[in-house]
TrEMBL record:
Protein name: Sodium/proline symporter
UniProt catalytic activity: L-proline(in) + Na(+)(in) = L-proline(out) + Na(+)(out)
GO biological process: proline transport
GO CC list: plasma membrane
The keyword Secreted is annotated on this UniProt entry: no
Chain's role: Catalyzes the sodium-dependent uptake of extracellular L-proline.
Bilayer topology: Multi-pass membrane protein
Family per record: Belongs to the sodium:solute symporter (SSF) (TC 2.A.21) family.
Swiss-Prot/TrEMBL keywords: Amino-acid transport, Cell membrane, Ion transport, Membrane, Sodium, Sodium transport, Symport, Transmembrane, Transmembrane helix, Transport
Recorded GO MF terms: proline:sodium symporter activity; sodium ion binding
Localisation per UniProt entry: Cell membrane
Residue ranges crossing the lipid bilayer per the database entry: 6-25, 68-92, 124-142, 162-184, 191-209, 229-248, 269-293, 299-319
Entry keyword annotation includes DNA damage: no
Length: 320
């Protein structure tokens, strides 16, 4: 266990919970729209980066680099599909969803919007949506908590199960206390850290490789590793990842929360640009990680290992 990294993580956790406490104290008995949608007062930077960070999170730091590290250039089509889908959702879905959710009795959730939009007098649609969300997001949240456990156990050295309980408690705490505002602001800061980490780490690693500072020689690769056009099925399935953005509630709810149409246009530019940069450097991390680290036992920690190898504990604790 590295004490410096542990201290950095603790400070970060306290900061996250502090955001929840701040918005709890600031709320003063606000109504449902303020708690669940931030009163539709989200600015362009917070809405854009929170939407991106809530989607990418640990996956872009662990999942995508691991996939590229293990399987090669053919995995870039996942990033291409995500970039296209994300851009299209901001361009075509965001302005309409914001406009129609206000027109549909100022709906503050996706199930409520669908019910009001289609003038349903029954609660059946809301119930169906709730059941689908419960099942899907139980699995989704579990994978995110598992990623937190892997990160903490790798970096801090504590048991992965204990780490998952700690992560779940912190997330529930700031979400319960601060509502939508706390979630968006914590995701905003996380988005900034993700951007910094993915910009800095692969560039430093590549510089070390160029100067002969790699930890090991390039690991053996599978056949066609450097070929992006492996098969049409890989390309089509990779591009298909982008279709999910049009129906992911935790992302599109951000569209409904934006303050104005002017801010929405700014948000779309910021959000699309952030995502393109994040995906490019996430893919680069996987490819450069193979050259820099050589063969590692667990490909899911390629980015974590690269950061901890290059930077001192204080910097790696901040970036991770």
């Amino acid at each position: 266990m590295n004490v410096t990294e542990l201290v950095v993580f603790i400070i970060y956790f306290v900061f996250m919970v502090g955001i929840g406490i701040y918005f709890f104290a600031k709320s003063k008995g606000d109504n449902e729209k303020d708690y669940f949608l931030g009163g539709r007062q989200m600015g362009p930077w917070v809405s854009a980066l929170s939407a991106g960070a809530s989607d990418m999170s640990a996956w872009v730091l662990m999942g995508l680099p691991a996939s590229v590290y293990a399987l090669g250039m053919g995995q870039i089509w996942i990033a291409v599909g995500l970039a296209i889908g994300y851009a299209l959702s901001w361009i075509f879905e965001a302005p309409r969803l914001r406009k129609f959710s206000i027109a549909a009795k100022d709906s503050i959730t996706i199930p409520q919007y669908l019910t009001n939009r289609f003038l349903s007098k029954s609660k059946f649609l809301q119930i169906i949506c709730a059941v689908i969300f419960l099942v899907a997001y139980t699995i989704y949240a579990a994978s995110s908590i598992k990623a937190c456990g892997t990160l903490f156990s790798t970096v801090i050295g504590i048991d992965a199960t204990v780490a998952m309980y700690i992560a779940a408690f912190i997330i529930i705490a700031y979400t319960f206390l601060g509502g939508f505002n706390a979630v968006c602001w914590t995701d905003f800061f996380q988005g900034l850290l993700m951007l910094a980490a993915l910009l800095i780490a692969p560039i430093f690693a590549l510089a070390l490789v160029k100067n002969g500072g790699a930890v090991a020689g390039a690991a053996p690769v599978v056949e066609g590793y450097w070929d992006a056009f492996t098969s049409w099925s890989d390309i089509v399935s990779g591009l298909g990842w982008g279709l999910g953005y049009f129906g992911m509630p935790h992302i599109i709810i951000r569209f409904m929360s934006i303050r104005s149409n002017k801010d929405l246009r700014k948000s779309s530019v910021i959000g699309i640009s952030w995502t393109f940069i994040i995906l490019i450097f996430s893919v680069a991390s996987g490819l450069i990680g193979r050259m820099f680290l050589g063969e590692i036992e667990d490909s899911s920690v390629v980015f974590i290992t690269m950061v901890r190898t290059i930077f001192p504990a204080l910097v790696s604790g901040i970036l991770l």
